[in-house]
């Protein structure tokens, strides 16, 4: 299976940058593990979250090779519904953790499947929001900062 991956990133002004990568492999494992070819580095993604594969040879023009996604250890949402496995069709939106993938139209003679993916909900690295959620402090314990 020949897979075209297009990573979309946005800068602070909202402008989109595209980075393309083509993989030629039987199955593509998605996750944050180091052995995953489709690496999503976010703690909300399982080590081996899902697998994208192809059923059918796709070598002759008569045989239809259909691509699918199958959840491995995580939750995969396809067009708003949680699925264990689903066939991939052009226009579908797939959510894996905070990432959204979209199946794109492609030239079948060049690639078997084209996917774009983007991080929609980045992790918040705001110290103030963490401090606001802390309920225990030194004042509430009746302890002193001084060492006796």
Structural topology:
Layout: E1 2-10, E2 16-24, E3 28-31, E4 38-39, E5 50-55, E6 66-71, E7 76-78, E8 81-83, E9 85-87, E10 93-96, E11 99-104, E12 113-119, H1 127-133, H2 138-141
Parallel strand pairs: 1-12, 3-4
Antiparallel strand pairs: 1-2, 3-5, 5-6, 6-9, 7-8, 7-10, 10-11, 11-12
Brief synopsis:
7% of the residues lie in helices and 42% in strands.
Question: How would you portray this structure in words?
Answer:
The protein is elongated and about 75 Å long. It is built from 2 helices and 12 strands. The longest helix is centred in the last third of the chain and has 7 residues. The termini are far apart. The mean pLDDT is 86. The strands form 2 sheets. It has a 7-stranded mixed sheet, with no helix packed on it. Strand 10 and strand 11 form a beta hairpin. With 148 residues, the protein is mainly beta.
Rg calc: 21 Å
Low-confidence stretches: none
In round numbers, the mean pLDDT is 86
Terminal CA distance reads 69 Å
Percentage of residues in DSSP E strands: 35-45%
Structural class: mainly beta
Could you spell the SSE succession in H and E letters? EEEEEEEEEEEEHH
Largest sheet features:
7 strands, mixed
- Mass-distribution shape: elongated
Q: What portion of residues is helical?
A: under 10%
Total DSSP helices: 2
Q: Numbering strands along the chain, what is their spatial order in the largest sheet?
A: 2-1-12-11-10-7-8
Number of extended strands: 12
């Amino acid at each position: 299976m020949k897979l075209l991956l297009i990573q979309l990133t946005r800068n602070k002004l909202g402008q989109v940058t595209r980075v393309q990568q083509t993989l030629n492999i039987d199955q593509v494992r998605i996750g944050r593990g180091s052995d995953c070819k489709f690496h999503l580095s976010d703690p909300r993604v399982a080590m081996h979250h899902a697998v994208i594969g192809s059923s059918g040879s796709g070598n002759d023009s008569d045989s239809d090779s259909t691509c699918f996604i199958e959840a491995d250890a995580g939750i995969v949402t396809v067009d708003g519904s949680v699925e264990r496995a689903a066939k991939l069709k052009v226009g579908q939106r797939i959510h894996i953790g905070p990432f959204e993938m979209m199946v794109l139209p492609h030239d079948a003679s060049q690639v078997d499947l084209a996917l774009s993916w983007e991080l929609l909900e980045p992790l918040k690295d705001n110290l103030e929001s963490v401090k606001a959620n802390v309920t225990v402090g030194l004042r509430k314990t009746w302890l002193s900062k001084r060492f006796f």
